[in-house]
Design brief:
The protein is mainly α. It contains 7 helices and no strands. The protein has one domain: Methane Monooxygenase Hydroxylase, Chain G, domain 1, CATH 1.20.58.220.
Length: 222
Amino acid sequence: MDHILKAVDDDLGALSYAVAAMGDLAVAQVRASVDVFARHDLPAAEKVVRADNAVDLQDAEIEKNAVRFIALRQPMADDLRRPIAAMKIAMQLERCGDLAKNIAKRVPRLDRAPTEAQAASISELGRLVADRLAAVIAAYRSNDAQGAYEVWVKDTDIDERHEGVVREIVAAMAAAPDSVGDSIHLLFIAKNLERIGDHATNVAELVHYQITGTDLANRPKL
């Protein structure tokens, strides 16, 4: 019986390792997309777009292995929550990768490089989002339910920063009507970052549920 239990632990450990590695890659993609935007680096932006394929492949591999584990091991309770959470977390991370790719794809569409103020404002939002995503991946890796809760409870910070960025873009657009085209791209970039923050919050809920079996969605934010 011991060898069966070890095999289960090994499978679950490999699955957790793959999800954490995918999370690291998603964080790197988010940081890179913001960096290429701020520097208006077109060749580097194309590399970020191409790198999204690796995120997609990891998502597919995690889903395949999670389904295989459930079919082969027929787990219950904690052992069932882990592969289900792995699949759902991977799906959220794949969407983060798509949004980072979308940011990078807008870089060559800008008529001109962002101003120093625009680059700084959106970079600040990007750092906040990437740090939040990295924090929830760290909570997943260390099986830290409290860490996941702390990410979940702070989601309004990103919303508030996003609203501030939008106000700045709209004000600049009103002052310089010829910048409308680029301003629209900036609004989409900011919105993509805000959505990545939403996915980080979703991952936090999944991590907390995997560890505790309780749903954060029903818990008040203190």
